[in-house]
TrEMBL record:
PROSITE patterns the UniProt entry points to: TGF_BETA_1, TGF_BETA_2
Location in the cell: Secreted
Main location: secreted
GO CC annotation terms, alphabetical: extracellular space
Organism expressing this protein natively: Cariama cristata
Keyword vocabulary terms for this entry: Disulfide bond, Glycoprotein, Growth factor, Secreted, Signal
Domain TGF-beta family profile intervals: 157-276
Name of this chain's protein: Bone morphogenetic protein 7
Claim: Secreted is one of the keywords in the record: yes
CDD domains: TGF_beta_ADMP
Amino acid sequence: VHVDQDHFYFDISAMEKGEQMLKAEFRVFKLKRTHVSGRSDVKHFCKVEVYEILESGSKPQKKHLIASRLLSLYTEGWEVFNVTQTVSKWVGNSSSNHGFLITTTRVFNNRIEHNLVKFAKSQGALQESRNALLVLFTNSNKRRSSSFVPSSTSMSRRPRAAAVPSAKNQVTACHRRELYVDFRAIGWSGWIIYPSGYNAFYCRGSCLFPLGESLNATNHATVQSIVHTLKLSQDISTPCCVPDELKSLNLLYFDDKENVVLKNYKDMVATRCGCH
């Protein structure tokens, strides 16, 4: 058994007085293996555990398990852990914040192979967009993001977390708005008998990363938002806010032969919006 450990500390002192934290996410970027072992006894998965460090400098290190999952050795990407309860405790008592510890465990046939799993944490050698983050969602409609601070840095030199404007501060997140269509105003009253108009609704707003459940995002939109956020391609924009569900509308109208017809027209009313 071999265990690799990574220590991540975040300064959360930038939270304002009276601000209530609703959710906290620890986001870390798992790097792809550059060397693929040809040995058949190497497992393709490793066990990753996230701990809260209870006391700094104590040996053996006192820690509390927050989350655990299996990860493939050969994939690369963001891993998101819900750390709301732990960070809530830190907000109430800042002295209890000693950071997170990530351990990766691999079991071989009584053999040890080092550095199978690496997480982005070096601010100099890696892209800044891949640095570990602690994202706080608060009742002030701000999404606070605290960048990883290397554990070797002294406490007095650790920067404060900066407030990152959320979609609500600049452009409202994707949602449904009213759109009343007056058939007389668009010149259709000559052939439509009833109704005289209807509320079609429309979708408006941004689809910024991270895409929450309320945005009804497709898997494709989620991937696109990540590519856009990491600036991997200048041509990739954010996903679009469009109708996600539509319903039909009955129209009573005159046809070309001036017969009165009642017909059900599909996809006339936007009932839900989403990021696509």
